[in-house]
Amino acid sequence: QVQLVESGGGLVQPGGSLRLSCAASGSIFSINAMGWYRQAPGKQRELVATITSGGVTTYVVSVKGRFTISRANAKNTVYLQMNSLKPEDTAVYYCNAKDGSTRSDYWGQGTQVTVSS
C-alpha cells in the first residue's frame, strides 16, 4: 500500500502562484510514475501533469508553460508549481501514484485550489 498526503492548496487571485506538494509513504519502491489530477465541480477528473521515475514529464495543454511538475526522490515527494493561475484552474487537485509492478493506482485525499478575485 502507498499513502499520499497533499498540501499547499488555497485561495489565490488570478495571476498568482501556488505550489502543491505530495508526500508518498509505504510501499513506494515500485512506484514508476506520479502525477496530479484535478476535478472541478460538475466536471470529470482530468490529468494535469505526470512525471516518471526517470524524470519524463507530460502536461495537459491548458497548463503548459504555466505549471511545472517535479519530484524529490530522496524525499519521496512530488511538487506542482502553478503560476499565472486562472479562474478555470479552480478545482480539487489530487495526487496520484502508479505502481509499475501491480498496476495499482493510489490517490491522495485532494486539496482545494480556488482562483478568484
Question: What does this protein structure show overall?
Answer:
By secondary structure, this protein is mostly beta strands. The protein contains no helices and eleven strands. Strands 2, 4, 5, 6, 9, 10 and 11 form a seven-stranded mixed beta sheet that branches. A four-stranded antiparallel beta sheet has the order 1-3-8-7, with no helix packed on it. A hairpin with a 5-residue loop joins strand 9 and strand 10. The protein is globular, with a radius of gyration of 14 Å. The model has no long low-confidence stretch (mean pLDDT about 95).
Q: How are the elements arranged and paired?
A:
Elements: E1 2-7, E2 10-12, E3 18-26, E4 31-39, E5 46-52, E6 57-59, E7 67-72, E8 77-82, E9 91-99, E10 105-107, E11 111-115
Parallel strand pairs: 2-11
Antiparallel strand pairs: 1-3, 3-8, 4-5, 4-9, 5-6, 7-8, 9-10, 9-11
What characteristics describe this protein?
117 residues, single chain, globular, 56% strand, mainly beta
Condensed summary:
With 117 residues, the protein is an all-beta fold. 0% of the residues lie in helices and 56% in strands.
**How many strand units?**
11
Uncertain parts: none
Q: How is the main sheet built?
A: 7 strands, mixed
Intertermini distance: 40 Å
Succession of helices and strands: EEEEEEEEEEE
Provide the gyration radius in Å. 14 Å
Approximate helicity band = under 10%
The tally of helices reads 0
Assign an overall shape: globular
Mean pLDDT: 94
SS content category:
mainly beta
Approximately how much beta-strand content do the residues carry? over 45%
